[in-house]
Amino acid sequence: MRKLLMILMFSIFALANEFLIKPHHVDVKLKCSDCHKQANEKDYKALDSNACLSCHGSKEKLAKRLDFLKGKNPHNSIHDNANLNCYTCHNEHKPSFNMCNTCHNTKTWMKEIK
Amino acid sequence: MINRRNFLKTLTGTTIALPSILNANENLKKDIKFDEIADVIIVGSGVSAHICAAYLVKNKLDVLMIEKMDRIGGNSVLSQQDFAVLNSDLQIKAGIKDSEELFLNDLNKAGAGYNHLEHSLRIIRNSNEAYEFAKSCGVKYANKLKFLGGHSVARSVETIGGGGACIKALHEFFLANKGRFKNETKSDEIIQDENAKVIGISVRENYRFDRNLANDDRQNLSGVKKNYKARLAVVFATGGFSRDVEFRSIVNPRLRLAKSPSSLGQTAGALKQMLKIGAIATQLALSRFSFGIPTEDLIYGIMLDKNAKRFLNEDGDRQGLSNKILAHMQNLNTTSYPTIILDSTGFANSHDPNRMQSFIIAGKMKKFDTLDELANHFKLNKDELLKSMQIYEDGIKKNKDEFKKDLSKIKNSSMSKAPFYAMTAAPGLSYTPGGVWADTNMRVLHISNYEPIKGLYAIGEATGGVHGQARLTSCSIPDCMTSGIACAKDILKGI
Ligand SMILES: Cc1cc2nc3c(=O)[nH]c(=O)nc-3n(C[C@H](O)[C@H](O)[C@H](O)COP(=O)(O)OP(=O)(O)OC[C@H]3O[C@@H](n4cnc5c(N)ncnc54)[C@H](O)[C@@H]3O)c2cc1C
C-alpha cells in the first residue's frame, strides 16, 4: 500500500513536467495557448484534429504529400483512407505512436514519426 | 488539470463503479432522460454493422451507428475480406459445380461438430444474397474465384481493396441514405424497460480509447455520459475479443501467450454488457490463429524452441501448429516464441517464392549467410542449433523423422545449404469464435428461458457457436453479412 502511494505521488509530480513541446513546434515558437484556447490552464483539454489542421491544412493536403507511398500512405491507407484523427499516432507531450507498426514492419518505408 | 485530490477520487471511483454482474434489475430504469433517439442503434462499425445498417436505411429506417474507436471498421478494415459464396455469378460463369451439401461438409469438417447446423445453413443459403447486396451498395469484387484451403471447390470471391475499400463503400452508402454515425462513442450499458425489453444504451461520447491501459473497458474514464433511445432495436455488432489479454486468459489460459494482429479495440467489454442482462456465453475458449508465413511451407524446414530443440512435426495446419506451439511454450514456462528455419533448398521449395521474398523485404523473414549470425539474431545456443540440424539431417538420410514427419513430402529439402532463412513463429489470435448465443434471426437469447431478449440483436463475430472448432477460411465475411441482413429483416418484420 505504501509502495502504491509512493508510485502515485511520483506520477502526480511527474505530471507537472510532462507537457513538453516537440522540437519542431519549439522552433516555430508555439506556446501552450496557441493550441489550448481555454482561458484558464486548469481547463485545458486534449485537442481534436481540427486544432492541428488549423495550421497544417486539410487531411487531403497532408495525404497528398505522402502520395508517393501509394497504398502505404499512413494519411490515406488502404485500411483507413483519410479517416483517422491526428492523435491516433501523433502526440505532442509524449512520444508518438506508429499504429501501422502494430501489424507491419514499417522500417522499410516510413521514417520514425514525430 | 488533474490535482492530487481529483486524481485519488478518480482512482477510488474505479473501484466502486464496478458493475455487479448479472444484476439485471439495475438496468430497468423508468424515468430516464434520453439525449438521442433513433429507430435502430447499431453498436460497432465493422462489416456486420455496415451491412445491417445499409439494409435498414435502404428501407427508410432512422439508424444511428456508434463506434468506440477513432478508427472506423474494427477488424473489418484490416481484413482481406475473402468471401465464400455458394453459387455466385463467378461460380456459375466458371461452370463450377457447388452445392449446399459440399459447402456444409467443408464447414462441418473445420467446425468438428462444434458448429451449429442452423447457422452453417444460414451462412450457406444466404451467402449469395449477401454478396449481391454488398455489390448493390458499391462493394467491388475481383473477376476471379479463389480456391482456398479447406474448401472442396473454388468458391471465395476476392474483395477489391480488401476491408478498407469495402467499409469505405458501405459507409458512403449508409451516409448517403441518411444514416447517422458517431465515432469515439462507447456503449457502456444496455438499458431495459420494466418488462426487460431493451430500449436503449448508455454511452460515453468523446471517448478516447487508451491502448496503454491493461484493460481499457474497466479503467478508461474518459468521455461524457449520455443515454440513447432505440425505438425498435439495439444491435450489437461489436466483434471479437482477441486483443483482450486479461479476458482471453480467463477463458483459455493458453491464449495468454498468443500475439494478435487484430485492431486494438477488440476487447470483451461489449460481450460483458450483453452477459450482464442475461445473454448466453458460448464457446469462449475456442480460438482461431493466423500465422506469419503460409503454413504449408513449414514442412520444408524445422521449428526450434528457445533451447534450439525441435518439438513438433512441422507439417500441419495453422490451427494445429499454433496450439502445439502455445502448449509447448506453456510447458517450458516461457514467453519466447520458437524460430522457423529453412535452408536454401527448403526456401526454393516454398510454393510461392515471390511471396517469401516479399517477407524478406518487409523484414518479417531474415536471410543469413552463416549459422553464427542466425544463432546470434534469434538468441539460440549455437551448439544446440547444430545438433538439432544434424539430427534432422540424419533422419532424412535414414528416412525416419524424430517427429514422424512424412519425409516423402519434403521434396529433397535439407538443413545444410546456406544461405539460411529464419523467422519467429508467433501464433496470432485473429478471430475469437466464441460470443453470445443468438437464433438465426440474430435475436440474443436469455439464459433463464432461451427466449429472445426483446429488442436486442447480435451479429458478426460478436456471436458464438457459428463456426465451431476452427472457422473455415473466408467464412467470417459471409457470416457477418448474412447475420446483418437476417437481423435487419427481423427488425423490419416487427414494424
Ligand atoms: C488481418 C485479418 C484478416 C482477415 N481476413 C479474413 C478474410 O479474408 N476472410 C474472412 O472471412 N475473415 C477474415 N478475417 C476475419 C473477419 O475480417 C472479421 O471476423 C470480421 O471483419 C468481423 O466483423 P464484425 O463486424 O463482426 O466486427 P469488427 O469489424 O471487429 O467490428 C466491431 C467494432 O465494434 C466496436 N466496438 C466494440 N465494443 C464497442 C462498444 N462497447 N461501443 C462501441 N463500439 C464498440 C469495435 O471497436 C469494432 O470497431 C480477418 C481478420 C483479420 C484480423
Automatic annotation (TrEMBL), chain A:
Pfam families given in the database record: Cytochrom_c3_2
Annotated InterPro entries: Multihaem_cyt_sf, Tetrahaem_cytochrome
UniProt entry keywords in alphabetical sequence: Electron transport, Heme, Iron, Metal-binding, Signal, Transport
Cofactor dependency: heme c
Domain Tetrahaem cytochrome: 24-105
Record flagged with keyword Iron: yes
Subcellular location per the Swiss-Prot or TrEMBL entry: Cell envelope
Signal peptide, first to last residue: 1-16
Primary site of residence: other
Protein name: Cytochrome c3 family protein
